[in-house]
Amino acid sequence: MTTERGTYEQIDGQHALRFVRDLAHPIEQVWDAVTTPEGLAAWFPCRIEGDLLSVGAALRFVFDDDHPEVEGTAGGTVLQVEPPTTLRFSWEAEELCLLLEPHGQTGCRLTFIDLMPEDYTPGAARTAAGWHVCLDELTEHLRTGAGTAPGPEPTPQWRARYEEYVADGVPHGAPVPGAD
Hints:
Elements: E1 7-11, E2 14-23, H1 27-35, H2 37-41, E3 47-49, E4 58-62, E5 73-82, E6 86-91, E7 94-103, E8 107-116, H3 124-144, H4 156-167
Antiparallel strand pairs: 1-2, 2-8, 3-4, 4-5, 5-6, 6-7, 7-8
Helix pairs in contact: 3-4
């Protein structure tokens, strides 16, 4: 699995996490992995209900019943779709953007951006660790066909990434048990 860390930065005056992954897979294969229910099930932290490929479509982000610590559903809207290169949607007050571009002989570069409102930034290290682990699972899914979408409970992989982001100075708010 990759250890390519994301960066915490400002994009157009807004706090953001940016992850760049160079993938050894054709852009169309990665597009399917980031837009279809089957692909998303291997790496995205919850189920997305709604037409992810239709601008303006309402989305619901649903956590399974076996994760009672996460409150049910959240909403969002599809903001931009340009197959097979651009997908942008809101998830509550956050905006997620996935950009794909050809890279190398047969691969592609995925840039994943999470634009966060000001009140989300104290927990940016937690969010960064979460997306890092999710993107590791996406990479594993593309490489092997396997991959398991992370649940809401901190895993050893998440804790290791969280500690790295905190050490990098990414805002982390209140301590996470066993992670600081």
